[in-house]
UniProtKB/TrEMBL annotation:
Keywords: Membrane, Transmembrane, Transmembrane helix. This is Uncharacterized protein. The chain crosses the membrane at residues 18-46, 66-92, 112-135.
Length: 195
């Protein structure tokens, strides 16, 4: 009696798990297809905008926002493709559990899904830094600041060189004055050399 009731409970649990798996895989497949189709439509809109845009067009700002959105959406969508393959293969396997090919596809796509799960945060971070204007501007400012510091050092070096040059001019002037040449002495008195 107890064994029969346990078998019945296990049977109901298997049916509930099957229904839950069917629902989750179906919902994931539908959402993934919708995101993928919308990404392709967005990419098509970017190409269309790019063909029709001029440099002084008001739509240029809209174009930049659209490109930013597409650049932000496409990498995670691509990284979730193994999950989509897993969900489709799982859906098909629900109706044919003896199919070994589907089991192999599911195991390989689960391996790829694990790898993509590890890569997704990096992809999201990079796409955020590249696609979204506030983050992109900050990154560019960081690189510009480093470049300006390097140029600043060069400018300081050139200023130091100019100061050395002025010191050597003053030394030459003093040397000429010490030789007591009156004509040169008068012409050098009118010159001002900054230090």
């Amino acid at each position: 009696m107890v064994i029969a009731s346990l078998n019945m409970i296990i049977s109901h649990l298997r049916k509930a798990v099957w229904i839950a798996r069917l629902c989750v895989c179906t919902i994931f497949a539908i959402v993934y297809i919708a995101i993928f189709v919308l990404s392709l439509l967005g990419l098509e809109a970017v190409i269309d905008y790019f063909r029709n845009i001029t440099k002084r067009d008001e739509r240029r700002h809209q174009f930049q926002e659209l490109v930013a959105t597409i650049l932000y959406i496409i990498p995670p969508t691509i990284s979730h493709s193994p999950f989509f393959i897993t969900s489709i293969a799982t859906l098909l396997r629900q109706f044919d559990e003896s199919n070994e090919t589907l089991l192999y596809i599911i195991s390989r796509s689960l391996d790829a899904s694990l790898i993509c799960s590890a890569i997704t945060p990096v992809l999201l971070s990079l796409s955020t830094l590249v696609a979204l204007p506030p983050y992109r501007n900050v990154m560019l400012q960081i690189f510009r600041r480093t470049w300006k510091q390097t140029v600043g050092k060069l400018q300081l070096t050139s200023i130091a060189y100019m100061k050395n040059l002025c010191v050597s001019c003053n030394f030459t002037e003093r040397f000429l004055r010490s030789n007591h040449e009156p004509s040169l002495n008068r012409s050098l008195q009118n010159r001002v050399y900054p230090l």
